[in-house]
Amino acid sequence: MISLDMFEHVSLMTLDSLQKCVFSHNSNCQEKMSDYISAIIELSALVVRRQYRLHHYIDFIYYLTEDGRRFRQACDTVHHFTTEVIQERRQELCRQGAEAWLKSKQDKTLDFIDVLLLARDEDGKELTDEDIRAEADTFMFEGHDTTSSGLSWMLFNMAKYPEYQEKCREEIQEVLKGREVEELEWDDLTQLPFTTMCIKESLRQFPPVTLISRRCTEDIKLPDGRIIPKGIICLVSIYGTHYNPTVWPDSKVYNPYRFDPDTPQQRSPLAFVPFSAGPRNCIGQSFAMAEMRVVVALTLLRSRRGQGPAQRELPLPLSPEGIGYAPQSPGSDPGGPVDSVEQTVGCRRRPLRQGPASWGSDSALWGPDPDP
Ligand code: HEM
């Protein structure tokens, strides 16, 4: 039995797969760290750390600090990589013309940059390089930390509940029965109902994004008659919603059967919102669910998870009672509040660690604060 902290490995895997899907780039970062991947990891950590220092909110002060300088440098590295890919690809597109270019890709999968280069708005206007860069960078950031948090907690639950782990393993073995290569096809993903139930229950118990905020664009009447006035910014606790005892009995218990598709559910579709809801919900949720199913299935197929001593002591990371939630009764109207809001910010959570983790050579980012 080998004991290891999964989170770093899983994060590198999600970065690896995103870089492949967004840029068609084989980063191989699970074997060897690249400047681009190190910069993304560093930026993700710096953004979180900046939130905890009031004086760092002022750009002028922030960019004078060590963190601010590192932030600028890492941004340059990320922008440089993305710009180079976009420019090369656009030159090739201009040289060949759209039709020939598309034809040359017929047997290949279009990546995210290809899709954006070909995109046109209602007036037939294309996206600028700057627009494409912003979209690609957003996907890299939104897509890696969230999925790796979701996957790490899922693997944690598999280790904690060996009976569920075994049931998932049997399910995937059944899907792959008689095949020579242990690879999943797209259609196989619908043949993993129990694994999907386990992933969903894990996302309920440990939602990677715990909190979102919305500004009300009209007065909102709550079920108890109270009104949230137009213009108010509300924090919506995804974590609290997932522990609402009215909707989720024994909410602290990991029970995948809550998501059994064969049992009719009385609860509102807004009782389970790991990917948020409404017009600004997660655009990558199908990608994330597909990736999680593939990773969980192949990981369980190739290895068995058990609990290390540290894991056995791990408490629930947040107390649902401590952060409050809006009571939501089963069947409550999902329409109004979500449509009457606009997006402000989100926040996400990583699995609890027993000590400072080391990210390659840069443990300082997770360890003691060098720039208080
Ligand atoms: C388990 C994995 C994931 C979770 C739990 C998650 C969760 C979320 C949540 C809660 C939001 C909404 C934030 C808000 O309402 O303020 C969001 C937005 C977003 N997510 Fe995800 N996400 C995941 C994976 C991904 C992936 C893989 C991608 C891209 C490949 C992605 C791209 C985005 C983008 C671009 C937005 C912003 C959408 C907008 O503002 O219109 N996410 N995500």
From TrEMBL:
Keywords: Endoplasmic reticulum, Heme, Iron, Membrane, Metal-binding, Monooxygenase, Oxidoreductase. It is found in: Endoplasmic reticulum membrane. GO terms for cellular component: endoplasmic reticulum membrane. Coiled coil: none annotated. The keyword Transferase does not apply. It comes from the Eukaryota. GO terms for molecular function: heme binding; iron ion binding; monooxygenase activity; oxidoreductase activity, acting on paired donors, with incorporation or reduction of molecular oxygen. One of its GO terms (biological process) is ceramide biosynthetic process. Residues 308-372 are annotated as: Disordered. InterPro entries: Cyt_P450, Cyt_P450_CS, Cyt_P450_E_grp-I, Cyt_P450_sf, Cytochrome_P450_Monoox. Signal peptide: none annotated. Its cofactor is heme. Heme binds at residue 282. Belongs to the cytochrome P450 family. This is Cytochrome P450 family 4 subfamily F member 22.
